[in-house]
Amino acid sequence: MISVVIPIYNEEKNILPMYERLTAVMDKLNLKREYIYVNDGSQDESALVLEKLAKEHSEVRFIHFSRNFGHQIAVSAGLDYAEGEKVVIIDADGQDPPEVIEDLYLKSLEGYEVVYAQREQRKGESFLKKATAKYFYRILNRITNIDIPVDTGDFRIIDRKVVDELINMPEQHKFLRGQISWIGFNQTFVTYKRDQRMSGQTGYTYRKMIRFALDGITSFSNWPLKIATLSGFLFAFIGFILILYTLWSKYYSEGYEPGWASQMITMIFIGGIQLIGIGIIGEYVSRINENIKGRPLYIIKDSNIPHASN
């Protein structure tokens, strides 16, 4: 059996068209399937559409969160309850064409535990979004010790053994495409052209994208901490130059003001180092704090999966 995990956030108009397209692909491949829709606190009628769909089709499972927990957490919940030997992760907006699942599945039969979809083209997205996504993944690859594929999202097919390893990773700040790369096994890709949304507006605001980027960087790189250290040395050097300058001003400059030297040295040399270092370290400490609280990743409000629980 193959499981399809589909995170949902305000996708009421896309659920049924996406279901029909998914079913056409699964019928063509003649695969037993289950669809796991994770409703991530939608504010529209997505919950009602999913419940009606589940009553009409036995392969449809749904999970309603108690509130919005985020895209990566929604995908994680779907993986927790997926029962298939292979699992597809795909969004409900239609930007990732479900027809590409056939290529992903056939490629996986060649002995690959992970087959991800790599974008050749992105339709319907602004220049800024394309540019930030392009350079983010290339920078991330340079500052981490793992190879995270560029021009990819979460759209992929993964083997049961990969799913089991992901379930055993307890991080609160999920960055699944990085975690899957970290796990290893045989991985490859197929290329595709990403479409526009079928309808509606994306839930990925720039604020969420920045938070997602921070999760990726702090989960797989200590580069910001190294920057803090290097900045400390840089400011120390600048401070040393300023010390020499202020001492020269004190003894040789006619316009020297008493107290100016100590004030300049204190403010620039010490204040600059502290502000940068504390800010970066604080970002890591906040993530450690989130993990040691031991709170659940998500809370389920309702589900038609019998063993689904909080």
Give a quick summary of the entry:
It is built from ten helices and eight strands. The chain has helices at residues 15-29, 46-56, 71-81, 101-108, 127-143, 160-167, 176-183, 206-220, 223-252, 260-292; strands at residues 2-8, 33-39, 60-65, 86-89, 114-122, 152-159, 187-194, 300-303.
Element layout with pairings:
Layout: E1 2-8, H1 15-29, E2 33-39, H2 46-56, E3 60-65, H3 71-81, E4 86-89, H4 101-108, E5 114-122, H5 127-143, E6 152-159, H6 160-167, H7 176-183, E7 187-194, H8 206-220, H9 223-252, H10 260-292, E8 300-303
Parallel strand pairs: 1-2, 1-4, 2-3, 5-7
Antiparallel strand pairs: 3-8, 4-6, 5-6
Number of helices: 10
Mean pLDDT: 77
Span of the ends, CA to CA: 25 Å
CATH topology of the largest domain: Spore Coat Polysaccharide Biosynthesis Protein SpsA, Chain A
- Largest sheet: spatial strand order: 7-5-6-4-1-2-3-8
Total individual domains? 2
Q: Tell me the CATH superfamily of the largest domain.
A: Spore Coat Polysaccharide Biosynthesis Protein SpsA, Chain A
CATH class of the largest domain: Alpha Beta
Uncertain stretches of 5 or more adjacent residues: none
H/E element order: EHEHEHEHEHEHHEHHHE
Describe the structure using short key phrases:
eight-stranded mixed beta sheet; Spore Coat Polysaccharide Biosynthesis Protein SpsA, Chain A; 10 helices; single chain; alpha/beta; about 300 residues; 8 strands
Structural write-up:
- The chain is α/β, with parallel strands linked by helices and 310 residues long.
- 50% of the residues lie in helices and 17% in strands.
- The protein folds into two domains: 2-221, Alpha-Beta Complex (Spore Coat Polysaccharide Biosynthesis Protein SpsA, Chain A), CATH 3.90.550.10; 223-292.
- Helix 1 (15-29) links the parallel strand 1 (2-8) and strand 2.
- Helix 9 (223-252) packs antiparallel against helix 10.
- The mean pLDDT is 77.
